[in-house]
Amino acid sequence: MLNHKSILITGGTGSFGRKFVETIFNQYPNIKRLVVYSRDELKQFEMAQTYSDTKYPQIRYFIGDVRDGERLKRACEGIDVIIHAAALKQVPTAELNPDECIKTNIGGAQNVINAAISQNIKIVVALSTDKAAAPINLYGATKLCSDKLFIAAHNVKGARDLRFSVVRYGNVMGSRGSVIPFFMKKKGEGMIPVTHKEMTRFNISLEEGVEMVLWVIENALGKEIFVPKIPSYKIETVAKAIAPEAKIEYIGIRPGEKLHEEMITESDSYNTIEFDRYYAILPSDIDKEMYIKHFHAREVPQGFRYNSGTNSQWETIESMREKIVKYVDKNFSV
């Protein structure tokens, strides 16, 4: 699928980017070129200690910000596929610095679209978040705008052979700034701060996220927002899995946080189909039957909602420990 192709990933030195690069070189050794586009020279230097251009001659490190449209266009010359993973994603930080979040998450998305159209890219897959569904915080609102921009980009691509799709999923296990590494650091202090006893989140591993993006590259028609069928967990369950002897202190929900996350709203249900491992939210102006036939899918019931608090799949303390060992830290033990 990707052998002899050229790929660019924005935010390529982040948690997802590093796992994506690892997976690409393992599964597609004959890839033509893999461009890591990011703005942090130190992270690129550190990443190059593992993925050097000597050992991996296909890799290129390109310093640049998605806010810089001209720089992004230059980086996209000769590229077949763009994975857009760059974002400002810390909810409290976005609440305090809304303008900066808007410039990166919305302006940056439009720059990716412009670069894709001008450089004759074939496939664009943008990473989204559960916080983009019925958003109550600025981060979620900017990602919802980003999602809308990528879907609407089909209206301005003309006759180009170019597909834009979005991948929306929940909390990624072990990613920087996420709850699992935070709790693991707190484990030795004897106290774990938990926002609310009933707070829930969706759970996905980096490996599953990368696998989903690769599936979308191969199978998407364009204009879809793909949502994986994944389990939920209570934040309290994660705390007990990591530090069963520690005291839990409930500190209250932070500004911009929800008690439960939602990836498909009731309003989305009228344009949502489901199949195998995924849902796909479709725009209302397309031939839904064509998508149903292509994905061997079916429509979800009207009024359906995909909410982390009412999910049918749940992580237990035991399953969380198993996944922490498998995906986050092989040496983890309670």
Observed structural traits:
17 strands, alpha/beta, three-stranded mixed sheet, 334 residues
Shape annotation: globular
Unreliable sequence segments: none
Q: How many separate helices?
A: 11
Number of strands: 17
| Percent in helix | 25-40%
The end-to-end distance, rounded to whole angstroms, is 42 Å
Instruction: Determine Rg (CA atoms, Å).
Output: 20 Å
Order of helices and strands: EHEHEHEHHEHEEHEEHEEHEEEEHEEH
What strand order characterises the main sheet? Answer: 3-2-1-4-5-6-10-15-14-16
Strand content: 15-25%
The secondary-structure class comes to alpha/beta
Give the mean pLDDT: 95
Biggest beta sheet summary = 10 strands, mixed
Write down the oligomeric state.
Answer: single chain
Write the layout of secondary structure elements.
Blueprint: E1 6-10, H1 15-27, E2 33-38, H2 41-50, E3 59-63, H3 69-75, E4 81-84, H4 91-96, H5 98-118, E5 123-127, H6 138-152, E6 163-167, E7 171-172, H7 179-186, E8 191-194, E9 200-204, H8 206-219, E10 225-228, E11 232-234, H9 235-242, E12 247-250, E13 262-264, E14 272-275, E15 278-281, H10 288-295, E16 298-299, E17 306-307, H11 317-328
Description of the molecule:
With 334 residues, the chain is α/β, with parallel strands linked by helices. It is 37% helix and 20% strand. It is built from 11 helices and 17 strands. It has helices spanning 15-27, 41-50, 69-75, 91-96, 98-118, 138-152, 179-186, 206-219, 235-242, 288-295, 317-328, and strands at residues 6-10, 33-38, 59-63, 81-84, 123-127, 163-167, 171-172, 191-194, 200-204, 225-228, 232-234, 247-250, 262-264, 272-275, 278-281, 298-299, 306-307. The strands form 4 sheets. A 10-stranded mixed sheet has the order 3-2-1-4-5-6-10-15-14-16, sandwiched between helices. A 3-stranded mixed sheet has the order 7-9-11. Helix 5 runs parallel beside helix 6, helix 7 (179-186) packs across helix 9 (235-242) and helix 9 (235-242) packs across helix 11. It is globular, with a radius of gyration of 20 Å.
